[in-house]
Write a structure and sequence with these properties.
Layout: H1 7-15, H2 20-34, E1 46-47, H3 61-69, E2 73-79, E3 96-98, E4 101-102, H4 103-114, E5 118-122, H5 127-134, E6 148-150, E7 154-155, E8 157-158, E9 175-176, H6 183-189, H7 192-198, E10 203-208, H8 218-226, E11 231-237, E12 247-251, E13 257-260, H9 270-273, E14 281-290, H10 291-300, E15 310-315, E16 325-330, E17 344-347, H11 359-366, E18 370-372, E19 378-380, E20 390-393, H12 395-398, H13 401-406, E21 414-424, E22 434-442
Parallel strand pairs: 2-5, 2-10, 5-6, 11-17, 20-21, 21-22
Antiparallel strand pairs: 1-12, 3-4, 7-9, 8-16, 10-14, 11-14, 12-13, 15-16, 18-19
């Protein structure tokens, strides 16, 4: 009989076939949780970032430096999400997003346009369908570089006992992803990191698969290379729409840049967290990583990066609020900015951030407010002056993708001249709808479409 509270977790993870490094990584965060660490970053411990180098002011010659570095660069896309919040039961990246193309279609064409390898970080749930779609693009294969590697899973922690949660009704719900900060351990355990380095790749551009504005920009790559940065985060100016997203800051005690996510903000500091004049930059999750620097850092830290803990409170069955409360222990990929000596950040235009997290976002990107360029970038129409339309659809009728599609049978309305579109109630959109300025559409009737 052991008194080690982590032993049941280690046994459970080993029985599931998880590698030793993944187990040690999870042990680090469990130990912090058991010691009472909440993962919170108080306002008193950080300072705002006043100014940064600007991608829109980089000298032209850096594009030449970036072009020369392309043969040593790989594009890594985070592709583990199922889009369950929109009612999807497959990889969200297989959803049609623009001009009849899925996220993965567009990402594959972006990689082919740049001439660099595309590598997906999949989950067990997204791997098969995603690789099947990429089979339509045989030219994506670069030598022996695999098209993907797989994210780990970790046990959910019972909040009352701090033991592995037991849920016989659906044992799969006993597990969760450990956040996209798991990418660093997964690169090692999959062998992908050493495969890339052995093939001569030195730089990785990493971003979310649902952010179609995140493409290889030679000038930005050139800046990253010329500055000899080990790690660089692309950030953009915060607007009112970004008040709840993670922001860039600086650790007062060390001067290092850091990322603070919403779940890491103490409730008493919410006002400061949401102050976009104080914390001016949000993390786009477009990250540039020097693979040699990453390998060196991992070697010095016994394979486990010291990323800040994110303690998420959930229920074991997310669809049942009465099921037992659990902690999901996660880390953020961008939080590695604090782990690297000399890491940097670069302010980029809003056009490099076009994520789709909800059907609100999907309507905006599908509309004419966004363009699909000849080199397969999805970007805001220049006439919008870097300000995306704010879309707020009634979640009762539009949150799930099937309901959403049924209400736009002729496609999205024109939003090129729309500042904000708010829809309340059940509204069916016909063809040729044009929204201008601040638009609110209300249907007080209780009947539901269909």
């Amino acid at each position: 009989m052991t008194n080690d509270p982590f032993a049941p977790f280690a046994a459970k993870m080993a029985a599931a076939g998880l590698p030793e490094l993944a187990i040690r990584s999870f042990q680090r965060y469990y130990t912090q949780l058991a010691a009472g660490d909440t993962g919170l970053i108080p306002e008193a411990e950080i300072e705002p970032v006043e100014g940064l180098p600007d991608a829109e002011e980089l000298p032209d010659e850096l594009a030449t430096v970036g072009e020369a570095a392309l043969p040593h660069t790989v594009m890594v896309k985070l592709n583990g999400g199922l889009g369950t919040s929109m009612g999807l039961e497959k990889a969200k990246s297989l959803l049609v997003v623009k001009d009849g193309l899925t996220f993965l279609d567009i990402v594959a064409r972006q990689a082919l346009s740049s001439g660099i390898p595309l590598v997906l970080m999949n989950s067990a749930n997204t791997q098969a369908d995603s690789l099947l779609l990429l089979g339509n693009y045989p030219d994506l294969q670069h030598g022996d570089i695999p098209l993907d590697f797989t994210q780990h899973i970790v046990p959910k922690v019972d909040q009352e006992t701090l033991t592995p949660v037991d849920w016989p009704d659906n044992p799969e719900l006993e597990w969760c992803p450990p956040g996209h900060g798991d990418i660093y351990a997964a690169l090692v355990t999959s062998g992908m990191l050493e495969t890339l380095r052995a093939a001569g790749y030195r730089y990785a551009f990493t971003s979310n698969v649902d952010n179609l504005g995140a493409t290889i920009a030679p000038a930005i790559l050139g800046y990253f290379v010329s500055e000899r940065l080990p790690f660089m985060m692309e950030v953009a100016d915060r607007t009112v729409a970004d008040q709840k997203g993670g922001h860039l800051a600086r650790r007062a005690a060390t001067g290092r840049l850091l990322l603070r996510e919403t779940a890491q903000c103490p409730p008493a500091d919410t006002e400061a967290f949401q102050d976009i004049t104080r914390h001016r930059y949000f993390n786009t999750n477009n990250l540039w990583i020097n693979l040699d620097a990453l390998a060196d850092l991992l070697a010095r830290s016994d394979g486990v990066l010291e990323l800040p803990l994110i303690r998420n409170s959930k229920t074991v069955d997310p669809r049942d609020p009465d099921s037992p409360p659990v902690y999901q222990l996660e880390t953020a990929m961008g939080a590695a900015i604090e782990a690297f000596d000399g890491a940097g950040a670069l302010r980029v235009p809003r056009g490099r951030f076009a994520p789709v997290k909800t059907t609100d976002d999907l309507l905006g990107v599908r509309s004419d407010a966004y363009l699909l360029t000849d080199d397969w970038r999805v970007m805001l129409d220049p006439r919008r002056d870097d300000e995306p339309p704010v879309v707020d659809l009634d979640p009762r009728y539009y949150r799930l993708i099937d309901d959403f599609e049924a209400r736009f049978p002729a496609g999205p309305p024109s939003l090129i001249a729309c500042t904000r579109l708010t829809v309340r109630g059940d509204v069916l959109f016909g063809a040729g709808v044009v929204c201008r300025g601040d638009v609110e559409i209300v249907n007080d009737a209780t009947s539901k479409l269909g």
